[in-house]
Amino acid sequence: MNPQFRVGDAVRVDEREQGGHVRTPRYIRGKHGVVTEICGPHPDPEKLGSGRLGVPFRMLYRVSFPQHDVWPDYRGGPADRLFVDLYEHWLKDER
Fold first, then answer.
1. CA-to-CA distance for 76 and 37, rounded, in angstroms?
2. What is the pTM of this model?
3. What angle do CA 25, 71, 44 make, to 5 degrees?
4. Are the C-beta atoms of residues 32 and 65 closer than 8 Å to each other?
């Protein structure tokens, strides 16, 4: 399994609504970030959450987001970042 994204790639999190067990937090959907780490393939948590085997595996990434973009009232410094682990099928290419 080859990753679709590389470290340093700009991505946007899909905004879709999806029922069931979803590991993508609502507060991060639609936000723009940068891939900081490729965590490798992992069982699909959405399938595991519904009692299935979690296959095929999904590529997992660590993505960095500026805190000010995620939380409009954030009072910290402009360089502060939020890191979220996200699966490839939730990410859109922003290159």
1. 24
2. 0.92
3. 15
4. yes
Cβ-based burial of 11 (10 A; exposed 0-12, middle 13-18, buried ≥19): buried
The alpha carbon torsion through 6, 32, 49, 42 (nearest 10 deg) reads 10
Q: Is 41 exposed, middle or buried (0-12, 13-18, 19+ CB in 10 A)?
A: middle
Walk along the chain (95 residues) in steps of 10 and give the mean pLDDT of each run.
Answer: 96 88 90 98 89 91 97 95 97 90
CB 47 within 8 A of CB 18: no
Angle at 59 between CA 45 and CA 66, to 5 degrees: 90
Please check whether residue 15 is in contact with residue 90, taking contact to mean a CB–CB distance below 8 angstroms. no
Domains of the chain by range and CATH?
Answer: 10-93 (2.30.30.50)
